Amino acid sequence: MQGLVILTIQARSTSLKPQKCNLTNMGCEQVEGAQAAMLFIGLYLVALGVGGIKGSLPPHGAEQFDGETPQGRKQRSTFFNYFVFCLSCGGLIAVTFVVWVEDNKGWQWGFGISTLAILLSIPLFLAGSPFYRNKIPRGSPLTTISKVLIAAVLNSCASRNSGSAITSLGSSPSTIPVLLSREDGETTNIKYVESIEIPSKSLRFLNRAVVRNPAACGALKCSVQEVEEVKIVMKILPIFACTIMLNCCLAQLSTFSVQQAATMNTNFAKLKVPPASLPIFPVLFIMILAPIFDYFIIPFARRVTKTEMGITHLQRIGIGLFLSIVAMAIAALVEVKRKRVATNSGLDSTKPLPITFFWIAFQYLFLGSADLFTLAGLLEFCFSEAPFSMRSLATSLSWASLAIGYYLSTVIVSIVNSVTGNSKHHPWLSGRNLNHFHLERFYWLMCILSALNFINYLYWATKYKYRSVSCSK
């Protein structure tokens, strides 16, 4: 909220923002000095706050349901579905009402509305505190991960003899039932004996973290449980990495698609739709699809597959990644159609093309569906599979995927322009007029990259073994 307050004050005060753009002479004056510092402080505070909320709210909400019962697991799955639904509701308000207010009343009013919304949400959230099931913090998961990795590397470098012993868990040794039999083979009674816990055989290089070695200091002493927890997170990382490409596609369609719509006819009845409001399409599709998925698709899948979940987390993520391929292919075809109309009307024409912007909605339909399937599936997958002490970190990977995907989109655009631009040809994605871009070729490239990413995902998904009860059935 502090970041929004700073942005509201800066947008309100004339002395804290640069002069208005003069498009006829000097153009726009670049913000610098104290004005730039205030702007970036506000933006980074907003990003920090949003990151904290989105990273902690999903696991907090999911922990309100009992994961030990089938009913609780079903309710938890519904929660993640409607968590994405609520995000879309907020996005709908942002790209319609708030955008309209900013365009017609000023940026200070848009930031002010956002600040007020956050301010009202705080007492509403605190009102439910007596009813929340709270998880007691047990230290930072990043500390555990760093400790295990450093200990494994140090022990690997310091000791290479095969006689090193593996430490036991030490805190609470596990017990296993042993059936005692008579000589005739009949079971008489059950005796519980303690067993020394040893690391699993997967990701064996991490097992060196529990090797007794004089070189390892006390601060780097690791238990077998800590090593196994880090292994679980390491196994989740390839699935997380495969979702980055989808977010890269989301970034491209939320930038270039807006530029496409700006060249098209944006009239809807008597209303002229601002191109900046185009993200309303995927938001609406998510809001429509979320209840359909929860009330119709999942129950039908449960009856067909005879399983608790109906559709597993990895299957849901895979469906989303496949839909992203379809979305990019449709985006390329729509751009081919738009370019054909632009060619007939004159490529250098600044007038809106005689083609409705609703053609853009087709690619948004599949992209919004892909986002719903992948985001909700990844959130539930990370929460269900991650160790109890690392659930917040694991669910935060979904938002890390979003951030990395948007950064990667910028890198891909730069690489494409560098490779395609030479003395004889203009870069595919550079110039003043979008009609001279080769945007359709870029979309086909993204489609191919998404297909290769999907193949890579299939490899890791088929290799992954669930550890949660609901998905192992």
Automatic annotation (TrEMBL):
It is found in: Membrane. The keyword Transmembrane applies. Its main location: membrane. One of its GO terms (cellular component) is membrane. Belongs to the major facilitator superfamily. Phosphate:H(+) symporter (TC 2.A.1.9) family. Belongs to the major facilitator superfamily. Proton-dependent oligopeptide transporter (POT/PTR) (TC 2.A.17) family. InterPro entries: MFS_trans_sf, POT_fam. The chain crosses the membrane at residues 33-53, 79-101, 107-128, 236-256, 276-297, 317-336, 356-379, 399-421, 441-460. It is a multi-pass membrane protein. Keywords: Membrane, Transmembrane, Transmembrane helix. PANTHER family: OLIGOPEPTIDE TRANSPORTER-RELATED. One of its GO terms (molecular function) is transmembrane transporter activity. This is Protein nrt1 ptr family 4.6.
